[in-house]
Amino acid sequence: MNYNWNWGIYFEPSPEGVGTYADMLLSGLQWTVATALSSWVIAFFLGSLIGVMRTLPSKAAQAFGTAYVELFRNIPLLVQMFLWYFVVPELLPESLGTRLKQLPNAPFVTAVVCLGLFTASRVAEQVRAGIQALPRGQGMAGTALGLTVAQTYRHVLLPNAYRIILPPLTSEFLNNLKNTSVALTIGLLELTARARAMQEFSFQVFEAFTAATILYVLINVVVIVLATWLERTVAVPGTR
Amino acid sequence: MFANFDFGVIASSLPYLFGQGMVFTVTLTALAAGMGVVLGTLIALMRLSGIPGVTHLAKGYVELMRSLPLVLVIFWFYFLVPYIGAWATRSSTPMQVGAFPSALITFTLFEAAFFAEIMRAGIQSIAKGQTAAAQALGLTYWQTMGSIVLPQAFRNMLPLLLTQTIVLFQDTSLVYVLSLTDFLGAASKVAQRDGRLVEMYLFAAVVYFAVCFAASFLVRRLHSRVAIIR
């Protein structure tokens, strides 16, 4: 095997003019983290809303929740990315569509919206499972105490459900983080895109991808450590 | 909003989209799923073997694959496979590997990690007493696994394995980053040639939705039929 290893490549200046290859990868890491966190905000709140809708007595709310989940789960993320980036601006009224296309950070905004709505369908399934895993008596007890439906969810059901689903939510968060790499297809300069660019500029394929791999593994470890800490902090004393 | 929607471009590209694109996607999905399940089962057996080095190797492999984005793994193997080929054949120049074999190797190895986790759960769901009974009858390890544990594990995990295969079907669209002509790649090529992005991407979305929705409906039906009432 003749491959010219050059582990010093990270400290050589990148052809972009400013900084080294290491700076390039780190800026990619920042975009990855920024995209993952921003889209998670949408995914968490919208996903919780949809998940709750699927457990409400109202048939219309259930149908809407089910339709949302099925729609976003059965179309590949990459196709959804293209739909938001290429198709939606064309279908909107002309002035609005043009404004969308001229956004200074169009790939970032699109990726955040797309990932947020996509991951929301997965969060919704977890939230629904969490609520349904609770004993039926809890909701009834809330009603018996005179709480409204909204109050029952806010003070009784959701606090318990979130504690149950914390581990699967962590893995959805990690999936969301990994899925940010799909946004390289619409031009977001996140970590995988930067590693790919570094490989194209320097021909040091394995160094570039090794660095990206290590960075992804590191973020995973950090997230898992934080999630374990969170799980212990919010655990109700006396349970498990 | 749909005023100048052109259905003609979809109709005229159907043979290309399905004859080449969908055939590629389905072939890749089927082969990668089949090989992935076999490899995944082996990894699950390794992980449950209790032999220190082997268990850790399997665990490390699964954890590594699960913490990396598929796009990065696709790039890794695209560049790595020719070197592995060269090393295996003792040749001094990187081996020429076609796009399809490269994608197939990538998806098989990547999905094997996920199938391994499913099979591990399946094997662990079989009561310990069954393995003990098999050993008491004098069956060897491979006989126990082959005729007692694995058949039941497969049956219990079939719905999950199929659901994972639907995910794999959707994930194969990511070969787009290597410019291969899978279903989405074909749609994208027509879209760019004819300047008809709206029509082609919407059509691709509708087809993926129809296939995955129907498939997951069938899996749910199957699940209720094969479920063993305990």
Automatic annotation (TrEMBL), chain A:
Entries under InterPro entries matching the protein: AA_ABC_transptr_permease_3TM, ArtM/GltK/GlnP/TcyL/YhdX-like, MetI-like, MetI-like_sf
Broad class of the protein's primary localization: membrane
Any one GO BP annotation for this protein: amino acid transport
Keyword Metal-binding attached: no
Pfam families according to UniProt: BPD_transp_1 (PF00528)
Keyword Transmembrane among record annotations: yes
GO cellular component terms, A-Z: ATP-binding cassette (ABC) transporter complex
The ABC transmembrane type-1 domain, residue ranges: 29-227
Membrane topology: Multi-pass membrane protein
Localization per record: Cell inner membrane; Cell membrane
Transmembrane regions: 31-53, 65-86, 205-230
UniProt keyword annotations, A-Z: Cell membrane, Membrane, Transmembrane, Transmembrane helix, Transport
Any one GO molecular-function label of the UniProt entry: transmembrane transporter activity
Family the UniProt entry places it in: Belongs to the binding-protein-dependent transport system permease family. HisMQ subfamily.
PANTHER family per the UniProt record, alphabetical: GLUTAMATE_ASPARTATE IMPORT PERMEASE PROTEIN GLTJ, MEMBRANE COMPONENT OF AMINO ACID ABC TRANSPORTER
Name this protein carries in UniProt: Glutamate ABC transporter permease
Taxon lineage: Bacteria, Pseudomonadati, Pseudomonadota, Alphaproteobacteria, Hyphomicrobiales
UniProtKB/TrEMBL annotation, chain B:
Keyword list, A-Z: Amino-acid transport, Cell membrane, Membrane, Transmembrane, Transmembrane helix, Transport
GO terms assigned for molecular function: transmembrane transporter activity
Organism placement in taxonomy: Bacteria, Pseudomonadati, Pseudomonadota, Alphaproteobacteria, Hyphomicrobiales
Pfam families linked: BPD_transp_1
The protein, known as: Glutamate/aspartate import permease protein GltK
Keyword Transcription regulation (UniProt): no
Quaternary structure note: The complex is composed of two ATP-binding proteins (GltL), two transmembrane proteins (GltJ and GltK) and a solute-binding protein (GltI).
TM annotation in the entry: 22-46, 67-85, 97-116, 160-180, 200-219
Primary location group: membrane
Domain ABC transmembrane type-1: 22-219
GO biological process: amino acid transport
Subcellular location: Cell inner membrane; Cell membrane
Known role: Part of the ABC transporter complex GltIJKL involved in glutamate and aspartate uptake. Probably responsible for the translocation of the substrate across the membrane.
Topology class, membrane: Multi-pass membrane protein
UniProt record similarity statement: Belongs to the binding-protein-dependent transport system permease family. HisMQ subfamily.
Cellular component terms (Gene Ontology): ATP-binding cassette (ABC) transporter complex
Keyword Nuclease set for record: no
